[in-house]
Design goal:
Ado_hCys_hydrolase_NAD-bd, Rossmann fold, alpha/beta, Adenosylhomocyst_ase-like_sf, 15% strand, hydrolase, 427 residues, EC 3.13.2.1, seven-stranded parallel beta sheet, NAD, 17 helices
Length: 427
């Protein structure tokens, strides 16, 4: 087991970092009505009393408010990052100052340190896991299977992590229950579409200082995240091109008015590329060879495998930092291809990135919190494997948000409920 130290042992001025991180957290919390409501409930009822929660997440201000909520609910929490470039050291330090929280997240660590930090979280012997990408679940199953019997369950935040979990479950290798938080309506309709769409384009614009208007924006993948990027780019007067392998999604993109073509054809005309698939080798050598000078390449999928950077580096005769967060690769013929955030999550890993909008993550983290509560209260009801989030939990979070916004909605009458639940009513 790793003895990788907490964030406090990595910083020269811990107190200043803690103060700065706390200010970020307090600012975010002003715009998180769902977590504020749940904080009141969790602090009063202590539903997580005695639990140990191990987390691998993007450690920034919004996530930190979820972590603090879980601690207020009575849990001991240990957390590290799920991406080496998405951690905010000051926020990590602010979390680590809490007596019930230990944070091992440090920005910019190498692969070895990244996995050592995950092992340090696991050393707390979590009874619940909260993951973003499934690295912690994988590490527990591969290296510390003796802990599985004492783990009540887990929750997974992101598309890529759920894909990995379902593959693990299909092979019969997932040994405790995990909620697929990513697959709830609250997550897909708001976090994936609006969150990914807005934050990815915002960070591309801030990193490059280019406009989307009249540009050919190539979106790889037309799942919920890809739909969000395409929708927001079109809203900024871009010409959107979609590359997709699933015929129904490709047809949907076509019917929405976007151009649809193979990536190698899109590569010839694209100005800005955004990958959103969660799969590997989406933009490859044959695409780099036909791209125009000045093309901008970014990734909004979880891992840095969608753009084949090894192939791009082999093709390049020169590499240099064109501006902060932009690595230029110069081809033999003089063309320059520009990769943002080292091919990692552009909305979280670029130097100025802040991730999804606060209000969007308030909803997603609200679902995470009630899922953790559900595992503690009713964990015995769930067998090992991937589980959909109970619909009433997703609706609970939506209702809290509507109340906070002052929005009232209709309710079904008894007669309407009976009608919708009956098969005997004819014409």
């Amino acid at each position: 087991m790793s003895d990788y130290p907490p964030i406090s042992e990595h910083l020269d001025d811990v107190e200043s970092a803690r103060e700065a991180g706390r200010r970020k957290m307090d600012w975010a919390l002003q715009h998180m009505p769902i977590l504020n409501e749940l904080r009141d409930q969790f602090e009063a009822e202590k539903p997580l009393d005695g639990e140990v929660i191990g987390m691998a997440m993007h450690v920034e201000a919004k996530t930190a408010n979820l972590v603090e909520l879980l601690a207020l609910g009575g849990a001991e929490v240990a957390i590290t990052g799920c991406n080496p470039l998405s951690t905010h050291d000051d926020v990590s330090a602010a979390l680590d100052a809490n007596d019930n929280i230990t944070s091992y997240a440090v920005r910019g660590v190498g692969d070895d340190e990244y996995y050592e930090a995950i092992e340090s979280v696991i050393s707390h012997e979590p009874t619940i896991t909260v993951d973003d990408g499934m690295d912690m679940v994988f590490a527990i199953h591969e290296e510390y299977p003796e802990l599985i019997d004492t783990i009540v369950g887990g929750a997974e935040e992101t598309t890529t992590g759920v894909h990995r979990l379902r593959a693990m479950d299909d092979d019969g290798e997932l040994k405790y229950p995990v909620f697929a938080v990513n697959d709830t309506p609250m997550k897909r309709l708001f976090d994936n579409i609006h969150g990914t769409g807005e934050s990815s384009l915002a960070n591309i614009a801030m990193t490059t200082n280019v406009s989307f208007a009249s540009k050919n924006v190539v979106v790889a993948g037309y799942g919920y995240c890809g739909k969000g990027v395409a929708k927001k780019a079109a809203g900024q007067n871009a010409n959107v091109i979609v590359a997709e392998v699933e015929p129904r999604r490709a047809l949907e993109a076509h019917m929405e008015g976007y151009d649809v073509m193979p990536m190698n054809e899109a590569a010839k005309v694209g100005d800005i590329f955004v990958t959103t698939t969660g799969n590997r080798d989406i933009i490859t050598e044959e695409d780099f060879e036909v791209m125009k000078d000045g093309a901008i390449l970014s990734n909004a999928g979880h891992f840095d495998i969608e753009i084949d950077l090894d192939a791009l580096s082999d093709l390049a005769v020169d590499e240099y930092e064109a501006r902060d967060g932009v690595q230029a690769y110069e081809m033999e013929d003089g063309r320059r291809l520009n990769v943002l955030a080292e091919g990692r999550l552009v909305n979280l890993a670029s130097p100025i990135a802040l991730g999804h909008p606060i209000e969007v993550m308030d909803q997603s983290f609200g679902v995470q919190a009630v899922c953790v509560r559900e595992l503690v209260e009713n964990g015995d009801d769930y067998d090992a494997g991937v589980h959909d989030v109970p619909d009433e939990l997703d609706k609970e979070v939506a209702e809290i948000k509507l109340d906070a916004e002052g929005v009232e909605i209709d309710t079904l009458t008894d007669e309407q409920r009976e009608y919708m639940g009956s098969w005997s009513h004819g014409t």
